[in-house]
Amino acid sequence: MKSSLLAALLTLSGGASAVTLPIERVLSGHTGWTTGAALSPDGRQLALISRSAVYLTQVGSGRQTALAGHLGVVTGAAYTPDGKTLLTSGSDGTVRRWDAGSGKRLSTLQACGLTPDAANSHEWATSLAVRSATDFTVSCAGTVQVWRGGQRVRTLPGDLAAYSRNGTRLAVSNGGRPLKLYDAQTFEEKAEFALPRLARPIDVFTTPGPPSALAFSPDGTRLAVAFSDSMPKVENFQAAVYDTASGALLFELNGYPDLVQGLAYSPDGKTLAATGRSSAKLYDAGTGRELRRLQPPNTRIGVNAVAWTPDGRQVIATSTRKGAEVLDLSGRVSRTYTAPADMVPALAWNPAGTVLATGGMDGQIVLWKGTAPLSRWQAHQGGATGLLGVNDLTFSPDGIRLVSGGQDGTLRFWTPGGKRLTSIGLKSNTVGLPQFSGDGQTLLFGEGTALYLGNTARLLRKAEWPIQPVTQALYQARGQAGFLDPLLWRKQTGETFWQFKGTGGSTFAARLLPDHRTVRELSAASNGTALSQYDALTGKMIRKILPASTFENAYTASLGADGRRFAFGKTDGTTELWSVDSRLNVRRLASFPGEGRVYKTAISPDGRFVAARRGESVTVYDVRRGAEVGTYQGLAASSSALAFNPAGTRLAVGSGTAQRGGTVTVFEVR
Length: 670
Hints:
- It contains four helices and 57 strands.
- It starts with a helix and ends with a strand.
């Protein structure tokens, strides 16, 4: 025992080669955000981007083929004019070519170099413009690179580019400077487009911000340009149409301001479609007059791309939270295509370790046994509402109840089959941290800066506790968020809740200790992370065990199942495990160095293992041996959800992988 403790007290040296954590299973079962899209020239296939993956989607049947491989976010997708090849760009700095028919990856080009301040991070590759499978442009760190036949032939200053339909002209924007039009073959400058003047200048801001979208008319005689705001939060957006021969500004589009993220001319060139954060609109391409709005305004859906079907009878508008909607010219939606999620924000194992619950941004909860879904239900608002779905999950000790916290401001009890037992309205969209006492009679939960304790049986006596109707109250009363009155809670619930006054920052983690009357909390503060202890009956702080300054480099923190051990993830890549005894004496048990900021930590139920999530990797450490168990490089998404099973033999991560896709990955821990 003493020798193992001494080993744990040692700091792990970085010399040994890492073992790859073996994947036990990959799960895919939630609807994700659609962050981009491209339509093939024949209109038969959609390439839907779901953050870190691309799904080739057959228009009509909806059949999908996953394209996995980018490390991090997929930033763009574009088909070649013949529709046979799809090119994608990513935050890993690569451009990848895919066979559009089979989904087979044809090549990978490392277009962008490493960032100056991060040894293992590349500049993002963005803004693809494609002439053929081997002739394209991609933006990297303020430059537009032109590639032909696998060679970079020219680098132009800029950050956004577009080819004319016949491929003879290349338009390039360069921040707030005038746009330029080049001969696509010789790069001779053909025209320059001055930024329009703001109708109502603000201080020194007389022109809009840099372009956010470019589109050539089918005959190449006109260029439509959307501009972002020049001053944050002022929203002085504009969109304009230029003559490509002279560079003259012809007219501006009426009916905005809104950030336009997509522009597309109809096949006959008579109509211009524009998509903004809130909706899609049609304009007369000759005059700029607004013809109609295709979607009702909704500032939460984030419409980011638009394309016309080849017959010009329909528009496909793609939004982050609603997917790709096929609309006729009256605005009627005939079909919606969505992509699977690449991550979930919530995970929980049942007490037996046989069932894994996943909570997604779509607001759904799915229970899994192995790779088979046992049940699925809509638990919280998500998807089209613009909310982020499920924040957190936990099972009761007997496994017959599941509690979820949601971005819709509610805490809800469920049966494993999805029957709702009760719903509690709270004041914010950060409801989470739910956990039961060992006997299941008490529930602790939180919402950012407050913690609450409730009697389980009393809560279940009512189907609804509408103390704070968040969905109605959040944006009322002059924009002020709803306020929770503890006296109202006390009156309506019979004093089943107590509010813990936090340390001034948001709660990282909290635990109801085995004595059922003490709560231990790790909270973020301006100068670090604090460890505090509260009396569960009165809500009064017993003692601040460690001040925030003790952990000034901490970025994340977690508590073990019994509250006696806690882990910190630091900005310098270090993961530390600490313990606190019954006399509130604190000591560091282990320190594990690493590269890159630690975004999430988790401790196995027996306290033997610690997991740390950094960027696209997850690492498991053995505390007894003071050694690394293994690392997996190549996680697809940035979810921080981590959950050990009760035996500590498996680790669920709320992310798919770059090679195998998926939504959740379960690793073996040996």
